[in-house]
Write a structure and sequence with these properties.
Blueprint lengths: L3 E5 L1 H7 L9 H11 L3 E4 L10 H14 L4 E6 L3 H9 L4 E4 L15 H17 L3 E6 L6 H6 L4 E5 L1 H5 L4 H20 L3 E5 L4 H10 L3 E6 L1 H10 L1 H12 L8
Parallel strand pairs: 1-2, 1-8, 2-3, 3-4, 4-5, 5-6, 6-7, 7-8
Bound molecules: 1-deoxy-D-xylulose-5-phosphate and the ligand NCC(=O)COP(=O)(O)O.
């Protein structure tokens, strides 16, 4: 199965929020991403609404329902009451739970399943009862996959931050790839599907899917929007789709 691409729109919302204007349009950029072939849209609405707002998530639900009913909305965040209410209201096809502190600049680690597993299992059960797919943000550590699976989750999203940060260090990159491949293999053996995300780029994505072919879906925002400044949104999404299939277009 090819690795699917979910386009994270947080950066579009961040840019929009610089001024009291409705542009760039988060929905408009989501529409371009889906028309170009993305399988879904991701948002990570943080409590301070510094980028995606609850209203954006509702507008994206309406976009998918009205124009792209075969695509998915993936809502990521820390599972407090506000987040879980929003994920239910917008009927997110996939809910990705992330252990973020509200003060965090961005996500930088996965769950500690030994510590939080029992609490997470209860939340996972509630989401599954609503027929929502659940994914848990996880460090690329094969030893944690058994405790992740014990929560009852459908998937884990492997945190690719260390892999993304290793772009100028081939040995560190190799180590990060090995960690990701081992974690994905263990997760698959335990019956979990595997997503991945954070700091993925066109060149590192093509290498990742070649080494870790089990990855069902990647969610990408930051680098994709950086590239869109050069190539435009439609062409950029197509470049990431090509990378999902193992082809890395030149970064010229
Ligand atoms: C869980 C994850 O890796 C992404 O959702 C990332 O946290 C994006 O969030 P920001 O756009 O707030 O950096
Ligand atoms: N889950 C990762 C995500 O949605 C996007 O992360 P990034 O590409 O903005 O680092």
């Amino acid at each position: 199965m090819p690795t699917l691409l979910s386009v994270n729109l947080n950066v579009a919302a961040l840019l929009r929020n610089r001024r009291d204007h409705p542009w760039p349009s988060v929905v408009g950029l989501g529409r371009i991403a889906l028309a170009a072939g993305a399988a879904g849209l991701t948002v990570h609405p943080r409590p301070d609404e510094r980028h995606t707002r609850a209203s954006d998530v509702q507008d994206l639900r309406a976009l998918i329902d009205s124009e792209f009913p075969d695509r998915e909305l993936n809502v990521e965040g820390y599972p407090d009451a506000r987040f879980l209410d929003l994920a239910a209201t917008v009927r997110a096809e996939q809910v990705t739970l992330v252990p973020d502190d509200p003060a965090q600049a961005t996500s930088d680690h996965g769950w500690d399943f030994a510590k939080d597993g029992v609490w997470l299992a209860d939340i996972v059960g509630g989401l599954k009862a609503r027929r929502q797919r659940v994914s848990l943000f996880a460090d690329p550590d094969a030893r944690q996959m058994e405790a992740a699976a014990a929560t009852g989750t459908h998937r884990v999203e492997l945190y690719t931050g260390p892999y993304g940060a290793a772009h100028s260090d081939p040995a560190a990159c190799e180590r990060a790839l090995t960690d990701l491949a081992q974690a994905a293999t263990e997760a698959t053996l335990l019956g979990l599907a595997v997503n991945a995300g954070h700091d993925l780029t066109v060149p590192n994505l093509a290498v990742l899917v070649a080494h870790v072919p089990q990855i069902a879906e990647v969610s990408i925002g930051h680098a994709l929007f950086c590239d869109a400044l050069t190539y435009g949104m439609d062409a950029t999404v197509r470049r990431y789709l090509a990378a999902c299939n193992g082809t890395a277009p030149d970064q010229t």
